[in-house]
Design brief:
- It is a single chain.
- By secondary structure, the protein is an alpha+beta fold.
- It has helices at about 15-35, 35-50, 170-180, 210-225, 260-275, 305-315, 325-330, and strands at about 55, 65-70, 75-80, 90-95, 100-115, 115-125, 135-145, 150-155, 195, 235-240, 245, 255, 280-290, 335.
- A hairpin with a 5-residue loop joins β11 (about 245) and β12.
- α2 packs parallel to α5 (about 260-275) and α6 (about 305-315) packs across α7.
Length: about 375
């Protein structure tokens, strides 16, 4: 009669500890390889291709058992396995987001003051700003040069790479300046600036007034062919430079950047690539962007991209496609919104309804 809950590790008949830890090693690798949504799409696409998924645009028709993928602006990845049933009877969607809170460079970020070079930033998503000061940060992203060439930039992940940091005040200097600030303003948004250089250029040119700034531009030009104007066409993001690590003496936890929501993105990917046989209903894994800012834009769930790729699937599996087919399919479909939730921490259990909150090691969370 009563609901019984039990710590999953206690059920030795079910728990395969070696398999669990093996699964998590690849999960940690995915977090290290995919610290931005672009990088995670790249990782997911590689995984999908290794399991037989092909680009949907290469297929004029689809039949039961076919595996296809769609990529939207390098920030959405959709994997689909065509089922046995008529697609208008519905699709089973699992949807996860793969963007995470971070710090973005502004479109004109570089400046010099007191012979120090800094870059201005803007935070993306809900961050605790003070957590981002005085830690090693890596720079990830792309830049489109004036000749149209796209350059991928990753600085701070290799052992030999430099890292970046947001300077903070020394404790004995901070008391008067930061001591009276509220928690959310210990570090203010406009103070989230990274230091990028201190050595002036050796170039002898009287027209150069900001010599440290110019020295930074020289480094970027040498490595990537960039000039200052190219920041306007760049999409550059700062993320923690840490690697995913086991936490605790029993290694039962994982500490890493971006687990909200790449933990669900990874398990969704694994679920669809590991499908054996042909499912009854068409199965779709949809990795989305922009959840941290309200699911807006052409890569967020408020766009019509879901309708677009669903219509494409229908038109390739069914003759004489019509708009009514899309409406029927969506009406008959089921969707699981796969995202993280917070487990009860005994240090802060007052923020939860403990009877209904998730508990660590007690299985999958279902939120209503």
């Amino acid at each position: 009669m009563l609901l019984k809950k039990e710590n999953g590790w206690k059920n030795e008949a079910v728990v395969e500890k070696k398999e669990i830890f093996k699964f998590c090693e690849e999960y940690k690798r995915s977090l290290d390889l995919g610290k931005t949504e672009r990088e995670y799409v790249k990782y997911g696409l590689s995984l999908a291709k290794s399991h037989g998924f092909v680009c949907a645009s290469t297929k004029e028709t689809l039949k039961a058992g076919d595996k296809v993928y769609y990529v939207n602006r390098e920030k959405n990845l959709v994997l689909a396995v065509v089922g046995k049933e008529n697609i208008t009877k519905g699709i089973n969607y699992v949807v996860s987001h793969i963007d995470s809170p971070r710090i973005d460079l502004k479109q004109n970020p570089l400046y010099e003051e007191l012979e120090l070079a800094y870059m201005k930033t803007h935070y993306y998503g809900g961050i605790k700003k003070y957590q981002w000061a005085s830690i090693p940060l890596s720079l990830h992203g792309i830049v489109i040069l004036s000749n149209g060439e796209k350059k991928e930039i990753i600085i701070g992940e290799r052992e030999e790479d430099p890292v970046f940091t947001i300077p903070d005040l020394l404790p004995h200097l901070a008391a008067k300046y930061q001591g009276e600030r509220k928690t959310g303003e210990v570090i203010k948004g406009e103070e989230l600036q990274i230091i990028v250089g201190t050595i002036p250029t050796t170039l002898k040119d009287d027209s150069i007034k900001e010599m440290v700034k110019y020295s930074v531009l020289e480094e970027l030009n040498k490595a990537y062919g960039m000039i200052e104007e190219d920041f306007i066409s760049a999409e550059l993001q700062l993320v923690p430079a840490f690697k995913a690590k086991d936490v605790g003496l029993d290694r039962s936890l994982i500490g890493a950047y971006g687990q909200d929501d790449r933990i669900c993105g990874y398990t969704s990917l694994k679920a669809i690539v590991d499908i054996e046989g042909i499912p009854a209903k068409t199965a779709v894994c949809f990795l989305a962007d922009k959840e941290e800012t309200g699911s807006n834009g052409s890569t967020g769930l408020q766009s019509n991209y879901l309708e677009y790729f669903t219509a494409d699937l229908i038109s390739k599996t069914k003759l004489n496609y019509s708009d009514l087919d899309l409406k029927k399919t969506l009406w008959n479909s089921n969707a699981l919104s796969s995202d993280v939730n917070a487990a009860v921490d005994p240090l802060f259990k007052g923020v939860h309804d403990c009877q209904n909150a998730a508990k660590l090691n007690y299985g999958i969370v279902v939120t209503k």
